[in-house]
Specification:
Shape: globular
Number of helices: 6
Helix content: 55-70%
Largest sheet: none
Number of domains: 2
Radius of gyration: 18 Å
Strand content: under 5%
């Protein structure tokens, strides 16, 4: 229930719309993006636990991904959009989860893979889904995971969790 409230409050404040469309400052736009994607992730996790559909449906928002920058690199005085960093930042773990969420969320709304519905689902469609998930895994690997230093505990945890999430998908 509280997740539903968080979604509705965020939508009432327009957080589901990217701040760049409202001519907001770069720091405010970045904070809105971070907040919205965390709410999307929470909504998906709650729906998974309760075996229900997420409250936030695909294509009901246009908020872009947050930047790959550390919190300390965002200043209220910033007047220009920062370029996203390459490599590790405090946001990498969250960004990986957001990337996977973006691919998985639409799959939730497909007919179930139960024996009744599987016969009606074309093999071609299933193959397309597998290709889409594999592309996501390759994208996450090349954009984020290859930059991690597994001798650092947080990097190792990020790598392990990302691979576990991808295996679950």
């Amino acid at each position: 229930m509280l997740t539903g409230n968080a979604v509705r409050i965020a939508q009432a404040f327009g957080i589901h719309r990217d701040g760049s469309f409202f001519s907001l400052s770069p720091p405010e736009t970045e904070m809105r993006r971070r907040l919205w994607w965390q709410i999307c992730l929470l909504d998906m996790q709650v729906s998974d636990v309760h075996s229900s559909l997420p409250t936030i449906v695909p294509n009901s928002f246009d908020t872009k991904f947050p930047l790959n920058v550390n919190d300390s690199d965002i200043s209220e005085e910033d007047t220009e959009v920062q370029s996203p960093g390459i490599g590790f930042s405090e946001m990498v773990y969250s960004l990986i989860r957001f990337e996977i969420l973006k691919v998985v969320k639409p799959l939730i709304y497909l007919p179930s893979y139960s024996s009744n519905n599987l016969a009606g689902m074309e093999n071609r469609k299933i193959d397309e889904l597998e290709v889409q998930i594999e592309r996501c895994a390759q994208h996450v690997e090349s954009k984020y995971l290859k930059h991690l230093d597994v001798s650092k505990p947080f990097h190792w945890m990020t790598l392990a969790r990302a691979r576990l999430i991808l295996a679950k998908v």
